[in-house]
Amino acid sequence: MSPDIKGTDRPGAADQRGAGLNPGRQHLAVRPTSMWRTIRSEWLKFWTLPSSIWTIAVTIVVMLGLSALMAWGFTFDPTSPGGPADGGGADVTMEGGEDFSLTSLGLVAISFSYSVGQIVLAVLGVMVATSEYATGQIRSTLTAVPTRLPVLVAKVVIVILVGLTLGALAVALSWLATTPILEPHGMQLDVSEEGAWRTLFGVPLYLSAIALFSLGIGFLLRHTAGAIAAVLGILLVLPIVGMIQIDWLQDLALYLPASAGERLVMGAPDDVLTEWQGFAVLCGYVVVALVLAGVLLRRRDA
Questions:
Q1: Are residues 187 and 82 in contact, defined by beta-carbon separation less than 8 angstroms?
Q2: What is the DSSP pairing of strand 99-101 with strand 91-93?
Q3: Rounded to 10 degrees, what is the CA torsion of 47, 52, 55, 57?
Q4: Which of 106, 129, 135, 190 holds its CA 20 to 30 A away from the CA of 265?
Q5: What is the predicted pLDDT for the residue at 302?
Q6: Are the beta carbons of 265 and 114 closer than 8 angstroms?
């Protein structure tokens, strides 16, 4: 058989191949991108980053170590009741003349390290938003999820889960670590005290809110270093304004994110905001940051 005869198609074969090459007539099994699949994808991306695992591990170790050191320091305070220079006592007077029971020191020791935890959670929240912009992976993510908002929602879910889990685990381990140190001196935590459970639950709630606020700032700025600088400036630098002896500045400082939100952990030192009102103010900042992030995520190019 000659090459020409060998290459001749059967009648209708070209039409069949043409039909197969016509995109309009193909039948491809494409699975739609659901919210659950988006959350699962973001969850896998989060845990495949070595920085996520190391950050969480270091945070727990640091928070646990600081709480243990604070508890140990209480036992060495020669002026505190129950310390080496005192045979024991029911109450200890703190600054401002307010009386605290000895077991309140146990609560202070457990919750003390939240201030360090908020810094790490702020950095983590920013990185969840900006890491994909730094690598360019955000283009693939938004191509897979063209509506875009599910990506933000999925990252919000991940940050909430991580923040609550990390905060709760740090509090639980700090409780276990400080009890043997403080119990011989009568300073161990007494959960029946007023505000004890609010503080214990307040630490993971506060840390989660800070991480969400940082996530929103990260999406707004889309630059890791800039977003971290902005968040830490808002959390740590702006509250210094409250030290300026100008009435309206001091009043304004009470409504800053960290100053208002940490009342849930530290308690309300005045009648301006209650503990839960202060946390509501922080949540308001979170909502504003995430709403703006969602609007710009839909409008801006990747």
A1: yes
A2: antiparallel
A3: 10
A4: 129
A5: 65
A6: yes
